[in-house]
Amino acid sequence: MHLILLESVEGVGRPGDQVKVKPGFARNYLLPQRKAMPLTEDSLRMLGKLKAKADAEERALISSMEEMSRKIAGLKLSIEARATEEGHLFGSVSDKDVLQVLKAGGWEVGSRAVRLSSHIKDAGQHPITLHLHADITAEITLEVLPIDADGNRFEPVAHATGAGDDDLEPGDDDADEGGRGESAAPAGKAAAAAEA
Fold first, then answer.
1. What are the start-end ranges of the H helices in the chain?
2. pLDDT tens digits, residue range 73-84?
3. Separation between Cα atoms, residue 27 and residue 35, nearest integer Å
4. At the N or C end, where does the chain have fewer CB atoms within 10 A?
């Protein structure tokens, strides 16, 4: 179904864009929510106004994202997660976990702002790049604080032998400890410690 968007719709387009979407998406969401209208001669005449609205909306969004980038850059957040004595996590910290910590700290970022290349599987500090909008990014630091089964924080200890341990992937030695690595709970509660 061909429509003209009246509002920005993530993953679809901006106001004034002519889009082709599945009929069910149009009937059940876009049209009832007045986010789009059918492509007709009348709607094509409105296209100029919609494009101007889209441009103004985009400029405002870029301005607010640049401001957020300046404010959030260098932010330090922390999250607690169950870990072995060496600091390997039972489970991992995912994009959603980082997003949850950001939102708990009062930062309203988009759901796709956090894009980890892989889940975090070790305690310690991890640099994270937030993708706020197009080319606008900000660097923050997430500290994963290891906790034991009782929820108590502890300092990870270094491996005693050191020989051959470099070949292990994070979490590999967890499976040897009674299979806990497979069935352990995912990363835990967010610590509400957010420092600017």
1. 23-25, 41-45, 47-72, 95-104, 180-183
2. 999 999 999 999
3. 11
4. C
